[in-house]
Amino acid sequence: MARARKQAKRTRIEPSFDDAPATGGLTASRAAPKGKVRGKARAKSGRKARTKRGIAFRIARFFTYWGVIFGLWGGIAVACVVGFYAAKLPSADSWVVPERPPNIAILASDGSLIGNRGATGGKALRLEEMSPYISQAVIAIEDRRFHAHFGFDPIGFTRAMSRNIMQGRLREGGSTITQQLAKNLFLTPERSFGRKIQELILAFWLEAKYSKAELLELYLNRVYFGAGATGVDAAARRYFGKSARYVTIPEAALLAGLLKAPSYYTPSKSEERAHKRARTVMRAMQREGYIKPGSIDIANVKPGENAKHFKSGPEHFVTDMVAKRVRKLLGEVKRDVVVQTTIDPFAMLSAQAAVDAAFATKTAAKGKVSQAALVSMAPDGAVKALIGGRNYAQSQFNRAADAKRQPGSAFKSFVWLAALENGRVPSDIISDAPVRYGKWAPKNYGNKHYGQLSLSRALALSSNTVAARLIHEAGPQRVATVARRLGIKSKLAPNYSLALGSSEVTLMELAGAHAPFANGGKPATPHIITRITDTEGRSMHERRSTGAQMVVWSANVGEMNRMLRGVVEQGTARKAQVPGHMIAGKTGTSQQFRDAVFVGWSAHAVTAVWFGNDDNSPTRKLTGGSLPAITFANYMGALHQGLPALPLPGFDADEMLVPLAITQPTFRPGSNRSREELVARVEKEQPKRRSILDILLQR
């Protein structure tokens, strides 16, 4: 009974509330399980969704948790690393942008700039003084987000590292302009992780302390552009011969292109490589909107084509010498200075043209000669032109001021002057026969002897045997004393061979020691610096006249000029004649033709010229009366264009009318270029009186 009730309860059919009419107990009892199945399916799918959400949540929580953990520890690690390398830096309180190394600006006598010397090689400019194209080019190629970042460019750094990884080597550093400035100002060139961290710290400090314009100005005045040029003004003068104020778009692109690798991209090594890099910079400028599309034919741009030639210019010999003398006068140079010199730009051009013309002759080719030097000065010793060698780019040694060579017979001027002071007169007759003093038996050139000669004629023919007799009479010590009194500073061996120029002297000494013959007997110390000031015009040094007594008696000056004029008119220096001007001088050829020298003068200038080889090897019978005399004539001919014809000391004005005994030879430097063409070319430049650098760039 009880079991029957339980069974009835288990099979009890619940009333249906559906809209559809009931179809009986059997139908209703079969419909219930379908609904139950659907409910189970929904429950199961819900459980699956909740399970997925739970897994995703757990994964997110896992990564969030460990991300925070690793982030914290990573941050602590980075802070420790930064702190470690920051501790190696000086205290932030002592961080000061170092002073820019001082510059020595060297000016010609007309005020034009010859060049700059110093660690930077140029003056600092304000950003607004520079050509705007320079900053645009640098930003476009080096740091195009310069005005947006805070010293570190994450985007640029990531891009650079990605490229390095793809190429399998370190090609890009990703450093911003501020980071590069920090490295240039405070750090060594070492490439290490620690140095990079310090660079970043200092970059943040610079960004906090200076404006973007100030940072860019500092950078452009301190960065190295190759070829010894630090700072944009020095670079512009080095590569283009002009100030950074006047740089064009292509020139600015070349300068900006150098920053990646100055020694590799410098046009002084490869113009093609420099031009290709400049075009890359210009395309970057175009992308950044600094250049309008189509405004410039980028594919054919070739800036800085004179860079190689510019470096070979003779003005570099002058600036090197001046910089050395400035340091001797002032000691350590601690601020920018301006040096006024005696150098004449037109004289420099004339001198270089004459030397170039000499090496274009067959005489130079056959003579086996590789080097030359020239120094020219006013009769008071003020140096007007100096050529220290054939090509500065190939050799920076200054042969005019620093090389000591045997002057050969050019030293006989002092022997004959000693003879006059010992009582001889030009008309005295003296034997030219062979002579021997102990083991010394000098011979004449070509072993020629002329018998009895006047003292004047013997000098014109440069007789060695007569010179030997004269030094024997006067004594070697007396000859050495005369030479030192006139200006020879080098050590002179007081022996008989001194008469033939066996003791070595510099070309500048030789020219300065002959200057008293051009100025009437007054001492003439060669000098090139007249005044040194700071950039504000305050005097730091000024040359003053010494007011020294006469070093040659005026009567002897006249006699020496008459005899030495005969050397040019009728003797060994016929090729040194300058039409319309009175010239005196002396040739010199050292033993085995190792040195060929001529020193000559007019009332306007004294000039000495040397040809020879640096290794002291003999030339092929090159004498002082050949290339040196010819180079002298070409230079002095150009220099004297438009100058009045003045008599030498000891001559009267009416003696200028006496014609030369020998017709002026024609000189053809090169294929079809006559000496007159060379003079005309140089004269054409004279009225312009531009900077030496501007003139020489157009040679």
Structure in words:
The protein has two domains: 130-311, Biosynthetic peptidoglycan transglycosylase-like (Penicillin binding protein transpeptidase fold, Orthogonal Bundle), CATH 1.10.3810.10; 346-696, DD-peptidase/beta-lactamase superfamily (Beta-lactamase, 3-Layer(aba) Sandwich). Mean pLDDT is 83; it is low at 1-6, 14-32, 659-676 and 681-699. The strands form four sheets. Strands 2-1-3-10-11 form a five-stranded mixed β-sheet, with helices on one face. Strand 12 (584-589) and strand 13 (595-601) form a beta hairpin. The protein has 24 helices and 14 strands. The chain is α+β, with helices and mostly antiparallel strands and 699 residues long. Helix 3 (132-142) packs across helix 11, helix 9 (249-258) packs across helix 11 and helix 14 (345-359) packs antiparallel against helix 22. The protein starts with a helix and ends with a helix.
Structure described in brief:
With 699 residues, this protein is α+β, with helices and mostly antiparallel strands. The chain contains 24 helices and 14 strands.
List key phrases describing it.
5-stranded antiparallel sheet, disordered N terminus, Beta-lactamase, 24 helices, 2 domains, Penicillin binding protein transpeptidase fold, elongated, single chain, 45% helix, 10% strand, disordered C terminus, 14 strands, 699 residues, alpha+beta
